[in-house]
Amino acid sequence: MCDIAAWHDCTVAVRLRAKHATWENAIIRAVTSIDVARAAGVSQSAVSRAFSPGSSISARTKQKVLAAAASLGYRPNRIPAIMLSGRSFMVGVVIGGLENPFYATALERLATALRESGLQVLLMHVDDALTLDSALDRLVSYRIDAIVTSLAIGSKAVVQALSQLRLPVVCFNSSHVGPWISTVNSNNHGAGLVAARLLGRHGMQRPLWLAGPSRNSASRARGRGFCQGVRDTGIPSARLVRVQGNDTYDSGYDAIARLQKQGIRPDAIFSSNDMMACGAIDALRECMGLHCPHDVAIMGYDNIPQAAWRSYDLTSFDQQTDQMVARAMQLLDEALGTQDGPVSRTCIVDAQLIERGSTRAAR
Amino acid sequence: MCDIAAWHDCTVAVRLRAKHATWENAIIRAVTSIDVARAAGVSQSAVSRAFSPGSSISARTKQKVLAAAASLGYRPNRIPAIMLSGRSFMVGVVIGGLENPFYATALERLATALRESGLQVLLMHVDDALTLDSALDRLVSYRIDAIVTSLAIGSKAVVQALSQLRLPVVCFNSSHVGPWISTVNSNNHGAGLVAARLLGRHGMQRPLWLAGPSRNSASRARGRGFCQGVRDTGIPSARLVRVQGNDTYDSGYDAIARLQKQGIRPDAIFSSNDMMACGAIDALRECMGLHCPHDVAIMGYDNIPQAAWRSYDLTSFDQQTDQMVARAMQLLDEALGTQDGPVSRTCIVDAQLIERGSTRAAR
User: Fold this and answer.
1) What three-state secondary structure class fits B78?
2) Please, how many CA atoms are within 13 Å of residue A204, restricted to the half-sphere of its CB?
3) How far off is chain B from A232, nearest CA to CA, in Å?
4) Looking at this predicted complex, what is its ipTM?
5) How close is the nearest chain A Cα to the Cα of B233, in Å?
6) Under CATH, which architecture does the A4-83 domain have?
7) Which residues of B touch A149 (CB under 8 A)?
8) What ranges do the domains of chain A cover?
9) pLDDT for B248-294, tens place per residue?
10) Residue ranges of the HTH lacI-type domain (chains A, B) (predicted)?
11) Which residues are B275's β-sheet partners?
């Protein structure tokens, strides 16, 4: 028989035995509910109820417990509850690429939303989605309830590894689907269409698509939308120049510098993200002597804070991170709450066009 | 008596009882070491040894266990070990202000260093250090081993709350000290002196100190160093103009716009961070018609990626985040390893001057 009381006895036994262990001071300094019960002159179960929202306990007893807990520096221990319920209320959040301010902001909003739902973030930073698998072993050993990741998951092997965890997984802007895996996507294709229409109204004749890495499925969808939109304005596909960057400022700068050497001068640019667009704006000025928007109209994606900085004043698409995070939380709730096996859903959030100076001038 | 075997029995009992609980599917989908032992035809203790580095187990048995574990999707459970040892190998990392790319980069490096030390990050995002106290309760209930925070802790009450946790705490750029609390600081005062010397060589006559929020002790130290350095160049203190921002781009822009209205035109600016310096550069151009470095020399702090962007080309101080994180890890090791009660240390890392175009021109 193993109930809560037995667990507490175990904790005490561990405390006593640990006096001779290496981690002695790490353990004996922890104040337990027994210490609090003794100091408050109440039962141990009263201490437990005082820290469980909605439990039956008189206001007077609760106050005695909280006062004793505060004076001893006691904080309740969630670990026995994790063992008993199988739920840790921890969500593994796997991130990478925080040098892009968009991901940093998304992480802040996600961490806030999870905290507000009573969930705790167990963070895993990986350099690349391809290294995700080894990170998962460690995360899962903490009995996390679910995983949320903002990594661009372009590999089927990684999707398979995620599915095999048999844990709810929520991804952002991922193209692969699988059992247990839900995805929240920005309307990347739709935004590409909108970009072409807007640039068309500015007299676009020599369009340029500045693509992200080929493994980035969101970038590919933006490019397909833009290409279709350019055709819709009556410009033949062959006139659309495509260059590829890797989502960094430097790669946007270098892409324009390369075009300069080839004698190609675009008059309208859609960049797969804002970082590359900022690099492109600086290279247009420094390498080609072209200014935005007078000589070139340019748009990015993500609406990072720097898009609003006056040196760039960049028209962009805002992914509506708040909405995307809210949808992710709904998918998470649904997946955690169901008894009917793995959930796998996709939802799409429209990006909002933010017009700034880089496309404003009538030319 | 409570040993590892008893814990495993508990886990089984919980699994059986949980079949009738709400979180049934969250629990019964987890594969246990018993399932793996049965599939591999070995004892449960062999499974445990296969997943414990350095344990005595034959290569053949270990391979059988790993194959069975892989086919069942089993991953070891760290929770019983947390209860027995009192160590979770989780470190609470408290962050805020990721809109500043400096903090985002610091978080990435810290998360990587912790992972490489076998520690896991339990992330807590708070909007402000003043709200830290309520966040701590939740973190500590997971029996974290220590806390690392990059928040500017300017309040004695927060320091007291941290000390009362009786857990090792490591802060970055914090001025307050207390039992259990160690700090890694950038040499903020020294950098202020260096900034004044460099700007002095560029003919500084009308210096401006663009300060961060007054609760930011790192900013105050930079300002004191700069003020002393300006005096050392022979310029009377009264000639040093001081304006205050809040570490954002907009606050740097607005500070210069206000000076324009007062008819004050600086010729040398030291900004407490790069974000405000970027705002100042744009406002100097747009509001005063002044260009850097021809009319004004300007320096920032943090060496964020945008400092290297061509529109800013900003001279800055690099905090040497790698070194600061390495020192933080040493302090953490020391605090976790000692038997001699609370550790409280401060160490200082020199910032590296990165000279760029914003201070380069001879005027």
Assistant:
1) coil
2) 29
3) 35
4) 0.82
5) 33
6) Orthogonal Bundle (1.10)
7) none
8) 4-83, 88-186+321-351, 188-318
9) 999 999 999 999 999 999 999 999 999 999 999 999 999 999 999 99
10) 31-85
11) none
What is the full per-residue pLDDT of chain A (363 aa) written as tens digits?
Answer: 333 333 333 333 333 333 333 333 333 456 788 899 999 999 988 888 887 766 788 989 988 988 888 788 777 777 777 767 777 888 999 888 788 888 888 898 999 899 888 888 999 888 776 667 667 777 778 888 999 988 767 677 777 778 877 889 998 888 877 888 999 999 999 999 999 999 999 899 999 999 999 888 899 999 999 999 999 999 998 999 999 999 999 999 999 999 999 999 999 999 999 999 999 999 999 999 999 999 999 999 999 999 999 999 999 999 999 999 999 999 999 888 877 778 889 999 999 999 999 998 644
Residues 332-361 of B with CB under 8 A from A: 336, 338-339, 341
A125 close to B112: Cβ distance less than 8 angstroms? yes
CATH code at B188-319+354-359: 3.40.50.2300
Q: Which positions in chain B touch A18 (Cβ < 8 Å)?
A: 85-86
DSSP alpha helix (H) spans, B202-239: 217-232
Q: Is A180 on the interface with B (CB under 8 A)?
A: no
Quickly count: other Cβ atoms within 10 Å of residue A21's Cβ.
Answer: 15
In the prediction, which pLDDT does A26 show?
37
Same fold across B88-186+321-351 and B188-319+354-359: yes
User: CA B95 to CA A123: how far, in whole Å?
Assistant: 12
- Summarize pLDDT for B204-245 with one digit per residue, the tens: 999 999 999 988 889 999 999 999 999 999 999 899 999 999
Q: Half-sphere exposure of A111 toward its Cβ, with a 13 Å CA cutoff?
A: 26
Residues contacting B211, CB < 8 A, separation 6+: B219, B220, B223, B242, B243, B244, B245, B272
Q: Token pair 């943090």 is at which residue?
A: B302
Q: B-chain residues within 8 Å CB-CB of A123?
A: 93, 111, 121-123
Shortest Cα–Cα distance, A55 to chain B (Å): 18
Residue in A277, A289, A266, A287 with CA at minimum distance from that of residue A313: A277
Pair B144, B91: CB distance under 8 Å: yes
DSSP B361: S
Residue-wise over A285-298: b if at least 16 C-beta within 10 A, else e?
bebbebebbebbbb
- Owner of token pair 């969500």: A91
Write the residue in B29, B105, B125 that is nearest to A98 by C-beta: B105
User: Which pLDDT belongs to residue A33?
Assistant: 84
The CATH class of A188-318 is alpha beta
Extract the tokens encoding A273. 């993200």
CB atoms inside a 10 Å sphere around CB A31: 18
Nearest to A272 by CA among A232, A236, A311, A243: A243
DSSP state of A339: S
Architecture per CATH, domain B88-186+321-351, reads as 3-Layer(aba) Sandwich (3.40)
